[in-house]
Structure prediction request, 179 residues.
Amino acid sequence: MSRSFFRAATLFFFLTAWGTVLAAAQESPDFSLALSPGVVTLPQGAVTSFTVTLDSTEKPTFSVSLSGLPDGVQAQAPTMRAGIGTIVLYASPTATLGSFAVQVTARAGNNSRTQVLMLNIKSMLPVPQWEYTVLAANSDDEFLASANILGSQGWELVNVRFREGGTPPFVGFFKRIKR
Prediction:
């Protein structure tokens, strides 16, 4: 047999072995998974996010899934590559309240890694209810004295209008959170 045949056969076996190593690496890439932050608080009716860090010396595609989400909470977990990605969580206005251990699992080939995210669902944030009042005064001294009294009662000045020659010349608009 000729030297060129041995060279070709050696090259063939080398490439076949290298292809097998590459295929095995793609089927079972080694990687690590980290979450930040590890505890997320999400009010009902709100949206938040957390980051997923996937560290690998290879370049696989990762699928990320979440299990253990409470009723009324949805997650948007895109397909990722190695690096940092974002997962978005949405809680409906009627999402179940409480603390939940959510398993975040990343898969690449035959390997998977799981981390636990603590998810706290809180009641919907109240929307402040305001009350308003109008103050009319005939002079700046009268307006300031009355505005100071309103201020001591928790009223905030929103706007003031001065109209020279108007009756009354000073009009102020105030608001405060309903008690």
The domain at 31-122 is CATH 2.60.40.10 (Immunoglobulin-like). Residues 130 and 177 are 4 Å apart (CA to CA).
